[in-house]
Amino acid sequence: MTRQGAYKESDDMLIDEPKLPQQGQIAALPNEFNPSYLKIYYSKLFPHADLYRWMSYGNDGKHPACDSSYLGRREFSYTLDNDIFVRYNTFNSATELENSIKDKCPLKIDIGPIYNLNPAHRNAYAGDNVLTPVERELIFDIDMSDYDDVRYCCSGADVCLNCWPLMTVAVKVIDTSLRDDFGFRHILWVYSGRRGVHCWVCDRKARRLTNEQRAAVADYFRVYKGNENNYKKVSLMGQVLHPFLARSYTEVLKEYFETKLLTSQNLLSSEERYEKILEMIPDQSIASELRGKWQESRRSSSAKEDINIVRWEQLKQLLQKHKAQGVRRCVEEIVFTYTYPRLDMEVSKHMNHLLKAPFCVHPKTGRVCVPINPNNCEEFDPTTVPTLIQLLEELNREGLRSDVEGEWNKTSLANAIKLFRSSFLQPLLKICKEEMESSYNAKLQQSKNLLSW
Amino acid sequence: MQVVRSHQSHRSFSSSSGSVSASPTLPLYRSAPELEVRLEDFESFAIDRLRVLKGISDGLSRGKKPDEMEKLVNELWKTNMRHQDSSQVLNKDIISHFVLRLVYCRTEELRKWFLSMESALFRHRFRNQTAEAQRAIMEEFDLPCKAVSNAEFESLKEKLGQVARSIGHNLSLSTTDAIYYKVPFEEVPELVTGRKVFINQGYAYVAMNQVVSLVATIFRSLLSKALILTNRKWATSIREQEQHRLTPIVEALCSSYLGPDFSQPKEYGEISLKDIDQVAKSSFPLCMRHLFEKLREDHHLKHAGRMQLGLFLKGVGLNVDDSLAFWREEFSKKVGLEKFEKEYAYNIRHNYGKEGKKTDYTPYSCQKIILSTPGVGDHHGCPYRHFGEENLRAALSRMGVNSRAMEDVMGKVRNRDYQLACTLTFEALHAAPCDAGINHPNQYFSDSQRLLKAKKDSSTNVVDASTSSMHRLDAGNLLRNIRGNS
To answer: In which residue ranges is the amino acid composition biased (Low complexity) (chain B) (predicted)?
Structure first.
């Protein structure tokens, strides 16, 4: 569905746009955007060229090994106003991509897989299932609402600094494993705009994984198996933990649980909350002992030490010296239940799953889906992510000062785009180029070696 | 001889022209050998192998553990795949496999079953091979695994040991015993899934016993592709060419083993798991059929439903082990194995008088069932009483009751003569009178089975006499066609 319409000269539309919010009016405006703000965003701030270069994976050059059909076989889908959803948009050049986005102004852009043929031609072929995905990044989607049973500060769509550490934990655990265990290097973490994070693994090997292999990786990460019937949703069997779980526990989970979540979520401070944890202890006598202790101490709580920490120590003491391993292991199970990443399996398992593109604006919050640096993800603050209105205001302030980089460089989006480029895009494109050259040279060598007829 | 080529370009397989297989005792069935086989061997070899596969299928559905399965497979193989001429044992193995390919290539369901059983068989036989033979087979399959060097092993010993202990293997880690292979993680998804391997920098470190899994996966995928090709060949040429000779054998082989097994002594006094779906359709009264279908559909039944159906099945002849296997198979799909064992298995054994006060409960009679009061989410009770008219009509027509009989039945229902309604249904479906009337679901069942057996005994034998002629045939030619790569 590539369109080559006539486009208005983009500059004309913008600066004189009467709907551009004036300074001082911002406070009066709702925090959600309206479509005309999006138009400005796509016109001046959205990094079209970066998206194009990423999606091309090096095939946009002049090198003879470049596959000029590559980008055109990638599906993009748009969510337009009035909940209209348009699939199978494809583009063959940077200009087509940019113009389409500026023209259509989608509320959301999703990126799909690369198919065996250009999806625009899918109806030209007879037979079912003629269009099959051949490449797709390995993706993960972690959503805070999946943790509702272990966070008390918010629920559903809300997110705050008390529960955001759960996302930090998820990024740390998964990122480390993707790099150290699976050997992946080109990993992009993105804020989803409201209550979670997305992960894009873009190594060539990752892009070519089959559905079965993706499912295997997702299952390797899976620990939490919750449903309404189980009171115990994490079951860690075996004499010792698998090195991946052990490392996650000692390097990340334990610390976050004991120093952050225990207190910020008040996990043991009230009967309702501590019962949920006591329920997980297989030894009834220990659970009763703790219950008794805590019901008493309710009346006399020392203001010095946080009650959650005190109680956790008591719990650990009793459990860790038990002779049955299942009981001792309970400590880890509790920590895993309250901290270990909960992935959406379905997103990762299927090559044809669509995922929102980075740098989109979330319609409900107005926040931009900016990249997160896994190396200092603990510093990421979702409440300070730039919003569309904020960016427009910043643009306003900077006036017509030109910037060689682009308009975005005058705004808070600058850091996000720079991070995207330096930590992700540039290393990726470098490798793509190298791989392309080496495989091309290898082919040349091969054909030289073959005896000719 | 032609080279069988894989469809994945990164695996290039060596031609298997001269040697039959990498291992002297375990063929890989990559290509049909040049053999002549007698026509009756064509059939009997296949039947023997089918007994092995059926035995495996049975064992798996009973939830047998791996070491029990191992024993079972060995026994089955020893019992059925012998040959008086020891030099012919391998040929019997190969021929029977290829014949069964013909039989089981024809539908998706047949292929799936055959694939699962042959893979399970291969897996167990591979485990029992010598290390030499195993290595030879791995080479044949061109497995991209490299043995882990001593130096690397030393550096990873601790982690490898951890993984082993985490999955319950107490491997001794002396270098002679513990052979590890290094393979890209994507080659072993089933091991990655269960965190059964140590993974580092994109490589999975696979223990020798896990290598079995790898090899079995490749075997399975090769066989899967071969079956599709076989099917094509069968449909386009073989079936027609062989319509007077092999085709009837092949078709009889398939149906004679998937139908109900009336050769057992207590035919209508006892049913076994493999017959249960068949028998439910033909001989269960509507109340039990409904419960049975709901169980298959939802993988769950509430307590009253479990009692009504469970005791009925006991009365019908399902022994406690089969019953456990049956309920376990269904329930574990919904609530998982662990919960089944914890919460449901006990009650089943209780019904058989194996627990608690050890009362041997009797299956419910019609009267009791009619008087029960099913609520929301329940499926027990008597459908003639508890279903709305529309639902009842739909259920009866699904059973096969014609419209004339349907009106009679509905007439009885309106008069609240529920048992008479069921009797009329019985008569309509079996085209025979039931003078005594139906008073008990188990009576419906045994009457039905008696009638059906009587019918079968008087029907003619399917196999054509002319197919059991004694002349030799060039099976090699036929089997070569099966490969479909001509």
So the answer is: 11-23
